[in-house]
Amino acid sequence: MGFGSIGMIWTLVIPAIVLLYYFFRKKYVERTVPSVLFWEESRKHTESSPFVSHLSRNALFYLQMAALLLFVLLLMKPGITSSGDSSGHLIVVADTSATMLAEENGEPLIKRHKARMESLIRDHEGARFTVIRAGGTPEVLLQASEKMDEALRTVRSLSPTYAHQDLAAALSLAGTAAGGEHANVHVFTDAAAPEDLPAAVPGVVYSVHAASDLPDNVSVGQFGIAQGKDGQSAIAVVTNGSKADYEVALSLEDEQGNPAVESRVLTVGSGESERVVFDGLPPVRGLKLTAESGDGYPADNIAHAVSGGGELPVFVEAGLHELVHKALQATGADVTAYGREEAEQLPEEAIVVTGSEETFLARRGRTVLFGREGNPEENPVFIPASDDPLFAFSPGEEIYAAGLYPPFEDMESVAGPESNPLVQRAADGRIAVLADPSMTDWPLRPSFPLFLWSVIDSYSREQSGAGTFLPGESRPVTPSLEGGWQLFTAGGEYMAEFGAAGAVTAPDQPGLYVLRSGTEERYLAVVLPDEERTVQAGPSFTAGERGEGGKAGPAEKREPVLLFVLLILFLILAEWEVQRRHGLSY
Fold first, then answer.
1. pTM (two decimals)
2. For residue 390, what is the domain's CATH number?
3. Cα separation, 586 vs 189, whole angstroms
4. Distance of alpha carbon 276 from its chain centroid, rounded?
5. CB–CB of 271/318 below 8 Å?
6. How many domains does the chain have?
């Protein structure tokens, strides 16, 4: 038996008031009256038992309490829902998407569904149990087990996977698990239609258990980080899908959990969307937006985003050798030529390729220098292949140079001996090629544009994110120059490891995460699918083939309303008769 309106249990306060009244009503003192008029009545009380005598004296009270309790039970809408024909195989299909966290009377839908699943399993003791999780990719958690305890443990361990459910694939999997035999398939989701069910199979009955009510919902529909002239900005769209206006408090945190800007409060009208812009943010690599509204679906009130991504613009000095310009264009980079007098106007975040030592020394990072001031040492040399990551994609070959410029004292050697290197690197990442392009055969080799591509890629990695993932999504990211990736939470907790050539699989839980490989670090954001930002509700029903009996109709919840009404009327008539004969209880 279930209850359609368990919230009406508060009406128990009515019989409680009546009960308190009988405790505190006026008491009368019993006295012995020596009169023959009471002899026969005394004889009756003497002959009856104390229990029967107590019932006789307080019959009206007990009748009133029984009527009130039946009335409370009737308000709670008791009923017995038929789950279809019983069979030897019970298949449970559980939707574990984010919308299962939608609340009704403060209780998430997934919690109510799990309670119903456990009750269903206990009612089918002795059957075979199969449990299928309908997440982004359907998964069989338990297959044809005859152990009821194992099925109960599997159901209790269910938790949201946040990815949008593939219900059609899960139901097809359930039909396969039935194996052509009689089976009851119980689907627990928020909403489904009869056309969502697979084609009827004799002996397989589908019972859909859906959400009965649609909760209020305020969601963060869109959220991202933009790079502007005045720094970073965060842009969000907050949508109110409920029938009432909602006051929403917005707070923004960086990847370390620190407040990025002051919180804001706005009112979003029913069915409306509000665009919010947070300007003047400090440099961040990831942001978390929280919209507190007190609605009935909190999962879509939090959004995450990572900054940057993609390659930075490249500015190359117009006076450099033509082969440098052609090699940069071959890399596919966004290349812009500039005059040496325009060097001071170059943006800090850009990559600069120059032949000016003054420009090279004035900038901090993301700069490549060809040649130096002064005269080179004309001493022909062959530079052997380097094992530095900048040459990881270049074929191993010697480079001929007719002469080299003197090295910088505070830089490390990348290619060539320490005393006479061809390529050097500063601590802040600047690269110096100590030869004019005309003094070496390197610009004529395939390794030259590959070297420049590696430089541009390494500079772009400094500020780029790994991108935005859906829960549980797997896809490749730009390979690390130092091996495979390790996945951590933003707080530093280790989660998983991925090979250098393998795809990265995002966690199920939305949030900010970090990919690390040696000294390289890239943030990624896991966000809710767009389908999970809208809550749904629908009727529960049963459909399918019962074998010899034909098709099943919709499941009906049998409510014994008439029986309860008749009992209450009978008790009221009994109260009237008792009061007519004996008066009020004393």
1. 0.59
2. 3.40.50.880
3. 55
4. 22
5. no
6. 5
